[in-house]
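Open question from group meeting: does this chain pack into something compact, or does most of it stay loose? Before anyone orders reagents, we agreed to write out a predicted structure and look at it together. Recording both the input and the output here so the notebook holds the full record.
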Amino acid sequence: MTGALFAHAALPAQALAKEGEPALSKDDLKFFETKIRPVLTEQCFKCHSHTADRVKGGLMLDSREAVMHGGKSGLAVVPGKPDDSTLIQAIRYTDPDLRMPPEEHGGKLTDQQIADFTEWVRRGAPDPRVPMALAGGKFYGGVGKAHWSFQPVKKPAVPAVKDASWVQSPVDNFILAKLEAVDLHPNPRADQRTLIRRVTFDLTGLPPTEPEIQRFIADRSPDAYAKVVDRLLASPHYGERLAQNWLDLSRYADTSGYHFDGVRFMWLWRDWVINSFNENKPFDSFTIEQLAGDLMPEANQAQRIATGFVRNNMTNDEGGADPDEYLNKYVVDRVNTVGAVWLGLTVGCTECHDHKYDPMTAKDF
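Structure tokens returned:
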């Protein structure tokens, strides 16, 4: 995926209003997302979007720019004036020759839906979807409400709490603030045996041994719990525990083939993942080495092994299989996996068509 295509996704909704127009309020954004967008998607896009087999009446409704442009019947929406808007006239069925949606596509909208669209136009037709200019002119339907996975990581403000004496770290502020908001209180501190069992299972996936439990119970120092945590973080089992989720995302447990459930020998890559967690490898290196470790200048053996991530797809060794067909299947599998793991998106839809909401096209896929 090109950086230019995704660059607009991080723009706040306030930046998407045209010059001279007021920024979208949170209420307008919520109204569009809950009342308008679902109906457009379910009822209108089949005939009035870039994914339609044939656009009816020259009218596109899958971007703000398209809505304002209108179609062969003129302006679809006149902001602030529902009675002068062709779109509202069409969904009200006031003109027998202009009815949307038509009977063959579900018929007239409900009274509530019509009222919602009328109110939307009365508000000025607030629409957070990205205009084509911001999307590089490639497609309609970009998102204004930027997807969470496109957002830069930023440090949130630590919330204030009433019972500050309970707080031992800033993380506790977030937990306690949620509890206090609904008038709940934290449970009493667990006993020593329960504490060490919880943290040992959490960090290693294994129970503590009885000697470890007894040493913790006997340790009366104020940093006794912190010492247990440090010991567990230094354990090789810590990397094994954290690697479990990554191995699942990377389809490590999948069998090798389409026509028989053969085993695969990917343990070298599995060990690389475990060691990466135990070594606290920076995430940028963790990413680059798994996706392109073999392309790095003077790549070492470990960096080449890291690319096992993109080799976890199933393969076909059947004699009659078409190599070109299955090469395509392998690439599709890898693109889908990279999209899910690193972009936080189900990108498989774009194998066949442009996304309606996300800034991705079939061509980019």
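Observations to bring back to the group:
The CA atoms of residues 7 and 227 lie 44 Å apart.
The longest helix spans residues 323-343.
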